[in-house]
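Go through this one:
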Amino acid sequence: MSRYTPLPMARTRRALALLGTVALAAACTATEDPPGSAPATTAPATASASASPTDAPSPSASTPVTIPTSAFVELPAELRKSPRRTTPVEEALPKLCDNEFGTGGRQVTASAAMTVTYQKAGEPSSNVPQGMIHQTIFTFDGDGASGYLGRLRTAVQACPSYDQSGNRVTVKSQALPGVGDEALLLTRTWPETSLNGERTGGTASSQIAVARVDSTVTVFDDQGWEGASGNPAILDRVVRDGVRAIDAWQG
């Protein structure tokens, strides 16, 4: 026979009522924030970013900017092999020893790139292009544009040469006067090769120009067709026309 003795009905009802009150109080404590406090949230995990010389530009959401097509240079008809086309920024930016041109950091507010393909004036349309020029435009907050040029100069000085496809490429930098607020010209030189990859004994070269116009920086990367030399005269014209296009866009 069981020794369990049931509680009187009145005591059972009081115990159940007390348990219900305790449970309700516990539930309220677990789900409600104190009056006037902000709801608790868990911060999402994010990759850290800095403005070191090897950081890729990361557009800021604080100052949205749209870069129109009209801000980019367009070749005159006699030099234009094909119309300008949109290009991903990461593909348009040149690379030397490292990611020297991807140094915008968090002060970049917008970036975009386009490519123009050029020919020698007067050449028949059946000829292959002479080369192409990738143009990238960055807009910056504050003093970000001048900071970008400063970091780029330092990075280029640390890269007098680099290897590319088994060839040693030398880099020479110099100021480019009379272009924008400040400008830099880089010349890359490497052993020339024939179409089948054999060295000819000569050298080939191409240039990169970087210009700042107020809080905007534009990068021009001239690439000769199929590894041949670029055209310095055409690049010089494109750079100066490109700076004028940015000036007109900025008003």
User: Anything to note?
Assistant: The chain has four helices and eight strands. The two ends are 100 Å apart (CA to CA). The longest strand covers residues 199-213. Helices lie at 9-31, 89-92, 144-157, 232-250.
